[in-house]
Amino acid sequence: MAEKLSKAERTRQFIIQTTAGIFNTKGYAGTSLTDLTEATGLTKGSIYGNFENKDEVALAAFDFNLDQVKTLVDQNMAKASSCYEKLMAFVNVYDKINRSGSPRGGCPVLNTAVEADDTHALLKNKAAIAINQWRSRIAELLRTGIENGEFHPETNVHQLSISIVALIEGGIMITKVTDDNSNFEHITRTVQLILSQIQINKA
């Protein structure tokens, strides 16, 4: 049986879940204490009785939003059999996020990186860690594909893994700015083309 959360833990979880979409949409600087109290229905004292400050709420909200994306990726990858299909799962998930608006605000890594690169060191570090973990996961799939004979052994894993991340993140940014999902469709086809070029065709 799962361990029951204490009242304080439930309140803390409620604050994170309720404010995560606000931080991801309005950003750290754009999210006020009033936003947090109005969304949660709690007082300033209640919020700061569970979190030391706004920074701590924002960092927990980022983790929550990122976990939502990771869960979507894991679910899509579980349906894939080949490394190619697993790699395309990353692209497909972000296409779904762009179209559905869930998690609210879109990609937390892009949103946080754009806002916090020069203004909030802690959030910038969170985004940097997420990018590196993402790149590492893609690199691992590429290496597995090489070992399985699915991809060419001369594939530059580091170069390709960070390039796929950059294509996806850039595609998200352009799609959001233009409000045109067809832009991300071009990114999807570009990633497909790149991966097809490293595939080993088996008779």
Automatic annotation (TrEMBL):
It holds the Pfam family TetR_N. Residues 9-69 form the HTH tetR-type domain. One of its GO terms (molecular function) is DNA binding. The keyword Heme does not apply. Residues 32-51 bind DNA. Keywords: DNA-binding, Transcription, Transcription regulation. The keyword Transcription applies. This is TetR/AcrR family transcriptional regulator. It comes from Arcticibacter tournemirensis.
